[in-house]
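$ ./design --mode recover --in tokens.txt
reading tokens...
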């Protein structure tokens, strides 16, 4: 079978929570409670009755024209008697989810009862013509005195649907249409398995003391030279995914820097902890995503071992994103909000059984979070504690509401669908093969710096050369103040998810910014390890954006000092003296909604707590120097 077809069925199978069935009765799960609007309410019409004599010692085989056959083995009836078979036709209004196929059967019993189930074989050729391609056949059953419900069908090896049951109030053939986008999810998974990426342009020019070797097709590699602010040379390895699905890369320690496209360090470290406790040296790499790692020349020759791999977490995100209908950049933070509660389903070595449990949990968590759409944002704020990433998560969840709700309905109506697993038992193998053979190592070799021989001592009859002059004192990188309202006693404060303050650059280099956050749950001046604030240096303000920082030129996280000067060193950031810039600072990563910042100037009605929208001359400091 074509791989994309397999993948399409795999994802439908997995997300609907189906079990890998063998075709035996009882291998499937029960359906859930179904809303009345999701099921049709057929009007039934019965054909003339067919009366058949039965007894415990004889098997049953009754043809029902236009439908198929009723069959049962010897011993199916408790005593001699008769069964009355009526072919049913029906008509009904179209329901939201399940289609009434218009044919069925009802059976009543005279002077006997059933001892074991009877099988309804839907093997008339006209049945296959009724059920649209790609739909999932079901039976609509109405218990005596009850309301309509659905029952999943099983399949023979050649694909004939059947129902084995002892309940013979009306049973109608029906089906659940699977929307095109659900099949497209499968196509996406097929693409994940088969497609590769084009490598990014790479200028090359790595230091001569570095070398790269790779045994993995999982990534593209490029080595270049990178210099720090002092001109010291570093070997930079650029690593780009050669897959369309999400992978991990383990990065050997000792790097001078590690930068991941689209994911700041603090958020990346948080994401890693949330996804099964991966450490800070693991990079979650989106399909076609990339990162860089830089190393200095060591004193002894070293080989840095990298490794690319796929695990249950990365596979979960790869499937969750297309299920939500979002890309990695659009939806990874929203997907994590949902999948983190399902972590126990992926404990241990990834397997098909754990994968099925995870997908069901994922949909259930989705529906739980989206009962009230505002809950999605509140959950994201609790998780990320920072408005920009929480807003990204909220947007992804809101975009996905319709798809996820339909998936939830399909679970309730169809239950653990045995149809796909019975027809395509190789689907579990596809899941297992997804991550097989992908792990691959690659190395960055670093040759030792050559030893510098000591100069020979001068001859005994010559004086020693004069000592070299002392190096000049390093520049004071915080000597020039561009803005300073960092002092106690500010008369105004207020709650906010972010603050910003414009200033005019006095120096040509900005190095340090200090801000102030206050939370009365902590003591004044307390260093709050594990709680950080994001600080950005921006070219301007655009309030039309969710994050109004326009032209971010420096960005980072630093540990909060409560009610005091919380500083970050950006390194040496070039700016233009006399030009206006803006400092943005975002509420700390714990206790969202409980943080105040201070300001000195305000058209406020009174001192004390006010709306942060009225703030001016915020309590921050901006320092730098001239190069």
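writing sequence...
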């Amino acid at each position: 079978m074509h791989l994309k077809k397999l993948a399409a069925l795999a994802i439908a199978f997995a997300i609907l929570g189906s079990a890998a069935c063998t075709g035996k009765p009882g291998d499937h799960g029960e359906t859930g409670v179904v809303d009345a609007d999701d099921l049709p309410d057929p009007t039934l019409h019965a054909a003339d009755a067919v009366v058949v004599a039965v007894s415990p010692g004889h098997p049953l085989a009754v043809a029902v024209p236009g439908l198929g056959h009723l069959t049962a083995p010897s011993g199916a009836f408790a005593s001699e008697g008769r069964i009355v078979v009526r072919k049913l036709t029906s008509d009904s209004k179209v329901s939201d989810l399940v289609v009434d196929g218009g044919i069925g059967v009802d059976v009543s019993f005279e002077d006997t009862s059933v001892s074991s189930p009877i099988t309804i074989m839907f093997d008339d050729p006209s049945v296959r013509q009724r059920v649209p391609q790609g739909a999932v056949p079901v039976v609509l059953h109405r218990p005596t005195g009850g309301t309509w419900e659905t029952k999943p069908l099983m399949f023979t090896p050649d694909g004939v649907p059947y129902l084995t049951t002892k309940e013979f109030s009306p049973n109608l053939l029906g089906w659940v249409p699977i929307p095109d986008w659900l099949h497209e999810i499968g196509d996406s998974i097929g693409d994940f398995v088969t497609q590769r990426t084009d490598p990014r342009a790479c200028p090359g020019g790595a230091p001569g003391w570095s070398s790269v070797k790779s045994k993995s097709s999982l990534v593209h590699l490029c080595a270049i030279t990178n210099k720090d602010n002092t001109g010291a040379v570093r070997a930079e390895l650029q690593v780009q995914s050669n897959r369309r699905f999400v992978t991990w890369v383990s990065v050997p320690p000792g790097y001078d820097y590690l930068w991941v496209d689209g994911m700041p360090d603090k958020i990346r470290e948080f994401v890693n902890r949330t996804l099964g406790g991966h450490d800070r040296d693991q990079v979650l790499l989106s399909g076609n995503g990339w990162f860089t790692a830089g190393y200095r020349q060591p004193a002894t020759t070293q080989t840095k071992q990298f490794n690319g791999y796929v695990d249950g977490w990365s596979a979960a995100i790869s499937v969750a994103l297309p299920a939500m209908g979002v890309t990695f950049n659009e939806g990874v933070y929203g997907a994590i909000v949902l999948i983190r509660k399902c972590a126990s389903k992926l404990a241990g070595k990834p397997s098909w059984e754990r994968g099925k449990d995870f997908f069901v949990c994922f949909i259930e968590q989705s529906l739980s979070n989206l009962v009230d759409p505002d809950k999605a944002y509140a959950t994201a704020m609790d998780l990320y504690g920072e408005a920009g990433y929480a807003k990204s998560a909220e947007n992804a969840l809101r975009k996905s509401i319709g798809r996820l709700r339909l998936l939830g309905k399909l679970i309730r109506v169809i239950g653990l669908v045995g149809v796909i697993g019975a027809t395509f038992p190789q689907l579990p193998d596809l899941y297992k093969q997804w991550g097989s053979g992908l792990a691959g190592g690659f190395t960055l070799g670093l040759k030792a710096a050559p030893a510098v021989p000591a100069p020979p001592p001068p001859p005994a009859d010559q004086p020693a050369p004069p000592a070299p002059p002392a190096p000049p004192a390093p520049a004071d990188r915080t000597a020039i103040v561009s803005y300073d309202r960092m002092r106690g006693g500010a008369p105004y404060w207020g709650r906010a998810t972010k603050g910003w303050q414009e200033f005019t650059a006095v120096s040509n280099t900005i190095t340090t910014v200090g801000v102030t956050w206050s939370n009365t749950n902590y003591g004044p001046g307390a260093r709050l390890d594990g709680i950080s604030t994001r600080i950005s240096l921006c070219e301007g303000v655009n309030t039309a954006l969710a994050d109004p920082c326009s032209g971010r030129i420096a960005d980072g996280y630093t540990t909060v000092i409560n009610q005091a000067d919380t500083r970050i060193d950006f390194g040496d950031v070039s700016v233009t003296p006399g030009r206006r810039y803006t400092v943005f600072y975002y509420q700390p990563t714990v206790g969202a909604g409980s943080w105040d910042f201070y300001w000195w100037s305000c058209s406020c009605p009174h001192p004390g707590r006010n709306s942060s929208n009225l703030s001016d001359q915020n309590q921050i400091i901006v320092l730098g120097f001239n190069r």
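exit 0
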